[in-house]
């Protein structure tokens, strides 16, 4: 699907250190945990598509 003016999307990479890259959702329905208990990090940016290009909405001022 081509990105068009007015669209917003979330980019959510997850980095997992070592081990396998498998994970599961914890019983709280929100938390993600690696299956082998290795350290991981998750970040998210919300990006708006504007007529002048993409605009990251979640950056710090």
Kindly report how far apart the N and C termini lie.
Answer: 31 Å
Task: Give the biggest beta sheet.
Answer: 3 strands, antiparallel
The neighbouring-strand order within the major sheet is: 1-6-7
Helix content: under 10%
Task: Catalogue the unreliable spans.
Answer: none
Order of SSEs: EEEEEEE
In percent, how much strand structure appears in the residues? 35-45%
Q: How many strand segments?
A: 7
Query: Roughly what is the average pLDDT, rounded to an integer?
Result: 91
Q: How large is the count of helical segments?
A: 0
Please identify the structural class as seen in this structure. Answer: mainly beta
Radius of gyration: 16 Å
Total number of domains: 1
Given the C-alpha coordinates, what overall shape results? elongated
Structure explained in plain terms:
The protein has 61 residues and is mainly beta. It has one domain (1-17, 33-61). The protein is 0% helix and 43% strand. It has no helices and seven strands. It has strands spanning 8-11, 14-16, 23-25, 32-34, 40-42, 45-50, 53-56. The strands form three sheets. It has a three-stranded antiparallel β-sheet with strand order 1-6-7, with no helix packed on it. A two-stranded antiparallel sheet has the order 2-5. A two-stranded antiparallel sheet has the order 3-4. A hairpin with a 2-residue loop joins strand 6 and strand 7. It comes from Streptomyces haneummycinicus. One of its GO terms (cellular component) is cytosol. GO terms for molecular function: metalloaminopeptidase activity.
